[in-house]
Specification:
Layout (H helix, E strand, L loop, with lengths): L1 H13 L3 H21 L5 H12 L12 H37 L11 E4 L3 H12 L8 E5 L11 E5 L4 H6 L7 E4 L7 H18 L4 E6 L5 H6 L4 E4 H14 L3 H9 L6 E6 L9 H12 L2 E6 L6 E3 L12 E6 L8 E2 L1
Parallel strand pairs: 1-2, 1-4, 2-3, 4-5, 5-6
Antiparallel strand pairs: 7-10, 7-11, 8-9, 8-10
């Protein structure tokens, strides 16, 4: 409680509102004493109420001065009230506008928790943000963008912006220690080797600050993947490799790229995601679970993941016993109402 009062005092002093509040308090006390003196039927406590009501120009009329001195006092209090309230309103408005401008310029540290951090801003980051907002699991999740740009690039009430290069200082401002997931994108302005080197160094910084955060990193060259593995990145995306596989598949199986795009997008069509094994299906074989999920929820199970971030088992044997710690990899039009992790 003591610390809160101290922070409030420092806040009022910093915003230059402390003096104004002191003046208002003095006027209320003086006018309360005077009205109780001028009006015999008004007590000091009633005078305090009258002073506040008159100063704010509300004027309920439950207490009305009858003496000439009391009425002169009321006029003075009303005049002072109009001026002081105007100054207070202007001060508060200036403070709010200034804070909003600082937030848009990325100058305010983040205090959100269990959030997602996106490092760097480019066309891929914009697409990622759209996908996260289309996902029912992350529609309202706070997202913090760390990028060296002038101001917040999109209008999103749950997007916070930290301006600057991605480093320990900006990650601390983004409250990395309380984050759930962090996405590290490459700097498009850098040459490919330097770009990947920057991603690796950023990953090392992230893991040293918060080893528990789930890190998803983007690389250009697969040769740099071992460095990210040694930096303890949880998931590594090789952009060029992914594009090459998709292009080659599209060349041999026409239209496959559209199918993959639909499955990976949260904005339209079917979705691809992972979900916990329903309690009643634990220790059942894969084929039985496959049939039950399709019949009961119209969900297609195509694989198993051995816990979060574990090994991927596509198309397991029909008699594979599914453990409670496994995740089902599924395709469905609508997400099953249960706790799960996006792929």
């Amino acid at each position: 409680m003591k610390n809160r009062l101290k922070r409030l005092y420092l806040f009022l002093q910093r915003e230059k509102l402390l003096y104004l509040f002191v003046v208002i308090l003095v006027i209320i006390l003086i006018s309360s004493v005077l009205i109780a003196w001028f009006e015999p039927e008004v007590s000091f406590t009633s005078g305090v109420w009258w002073s506040i009501v008159t100063l704010t120009t509300v004027g309920y009329g439950d207490i009305s001065p009858a003496t000439p001195a009391g009425r002169v006092l009321a006029v003075l209090v009303m005049l002072f009230g109009i001026g002081l309230l105007g100054m207070l309103s202007a001060g508060l408005a200036t403070m709010l506008i200034s804070r909003k401008m600082k937030e848009n310029k990325g100058m305010c540290p983040s205090k959100v928790k269990d959030h997602i951090i996106i490092c760097e801003w480019n066309h891929r980051a914009k697409a990622i943000l759209k996908e996260l907002r289309a996902d029912t699991q992350t529609q309202e999740t706070p997202i913090v963008l760390v990028a060296d740009i002038e101001e917040i690039p999109v209008d999103d009430p749950d997007l916070l912006f930290i301006r600057g290069v991605v480093c320990e200082e900006t990650l601390e401002k983004a409250n990395l220690k309380k984050a759930r997931t962090i996405i590290v994108l490459g700097d498009d302005e850098a040459e490919s080797t330097a770009r990947d080197a920057k991603v690796v160094l950023t990953t090392l910084t992230i893991e040293s600050m918060n080893p528990d955060v789930y890190s998803v990193v983007e690389l250009v060259d697969k040769r740099h993947e071992p460095h990210c593995i040694r930096a303890n990145a949880d998931e590594i995306i090789i952009g060029s490799e992914l594009s090459s596989h998709l292009i080659a598949s599209a060349a041999s199986d026409h239209g496959i790229s559209r199918i993959v795009t639909e499955l990976l997008s949260n904005r339209y069509g079917n979705e691809l995601y992972s979900m916990p094994v329903p309690a009643e299906m634990v220790e059942q074989n894969f084929l039985d679970i496959f049939v039950r999920m399709k019949e009961e929820q119209n969900v297609t199970v195509f694989g198993i993941q051995k816990a979060r971030g574990g090994a991927f088992l596509p198309n397991p044997d029909p008699d594979y016993l599914v453990a409670a710690t496994d995740l089902l990899l599924v395709i469905s039009k609508d997400r099953v109402k249960t706790n799960h992790h996006c792929l």
